[in-house]
Description:
By secondary structure, the chain is of the alpha/beta class.
Amino acid sequence: MDTKRSAAKRFLGFSLVGGSVFVIGYAMLWSLVELMRVEPHIAYGIQAIASIELNFILNKVFNWKERKRESVSRQWIKFHVSKTGTVAFDQGFFAVLIWLGINYLVIKVVSTAIMTVVNFLINEYFVFRKQDQINAEVFNVERWPTIGIVIPCRNSQNHIKALVDSLRVACVNYPGKSFIVLAGNTNDETWVPIKDEIGNGKLKIVEISTDTRYRDSNLKRLVGTCAAIKGGAEVVFYTDTKILIPADTLIKGVQVMLREGVDVVGGTYHRFPDQGEWWARVQDEGLITDKPRFGSGKILDPKKSLNMPITACLFMKAAVFPMLESVWPNESSIYLSHEDTLIVFEMLKNGLKIWVTDDVWVYHNHRSDTKALLLKWRRSVISTANMLRADRNNPFARSRAAKVAWILSCFTIIAIAMPASYWLFHLDGLVVTVSSCFLVMVLLGIVNVVRSRDIKGFLYPVGTFLLLSTFVTYFTITLLIGHEDHGQSLQIY
């Protein structure tokens, strides 16, 4: 929700940010022209780009941080769309006054004053639009439905005890009835750490005999859901083994489901509280991550959203399961990752209303080893590309393809800009282009420092670039020539 902060105070903050950016841009313009001997027109364009990016970052962090109606990426796109017209006007204004013989530094002062009010209004009413105040009041639940918690397990002995302990606390805090269904293979070591707790009424084991060399998570979710509903579950909560459940997650998920009147609620995840490793923080706090980001809440529309909920944190009404049971995707062994999005795809195809929000979340055990993380991203990308090859209408795969296209466009522009700048402006042009790319990385580093409150965040863009390069490379190769995951069909015994 939006705060009670007045427009006057927000404008004051906006002006302070603008003033700070003006000083930085002014110094950059003078340095480029007087020290590096760059042509004023080119120098002005460079400082304009740098000022725009810094302006968005500082205003998002300090003036409109509570506006979460849309994701940061969508706000960033709207911000730059709005800047297309204003920058064109500003550049034209600058060129005319230069032609009239006015000093370029004086023009900088005048143009900044003129655009301040216009840019504030654009940010307030378009870029960082206020969250609609629908169903914002506290929602009291008259009767709490019974929750069946379904967890697919495979060689999970290193994580299952911590997960069950966190679920026990969440179940105690939940006002209604709840129980846990663990669906797993009979021939692995998952059950050893919790053998003393099995059979106490809270833990129900559904045994599935399959070849443990292959992923079979959706099959286990299917069997686990059937067991949960048979046990009296009115709401099914899906999660995974490398997860810790906050004490209030069950309460918040059910409240959102009943308040919004939806069939499904999808949340997100954060790194474990004690995970301070650099790679773990990059995945959690970087500007571009693999985890879903939804803002404060909305109905999922795959045509407008680039994010899909995952079964690490997913609530579903048991009453809608019959329409999904016959189309449940249980061929998950052919995918190395993200097979759970196929379940959400079937939910969408069957007309279920899915509410997605960052306000409902769990803790996830992020990979912190470079080799293991790159392997995870490789598997993720290959699976997503194969999903798109199998079904061009899959919204998750299409959203990933859109991201790849956007990233490739940025890489292509950079690849073209460097030789083109050298050809047009010789060494000065190449220096300016490389400096601009470096400046963008510095600005991204600054915003990551602010977001993470850690000076190490300055290097997060380097890690993000490495992950994005892996993402784009394997997605493109797999989409063009294919990649076999060597899965096999599975059977329940």
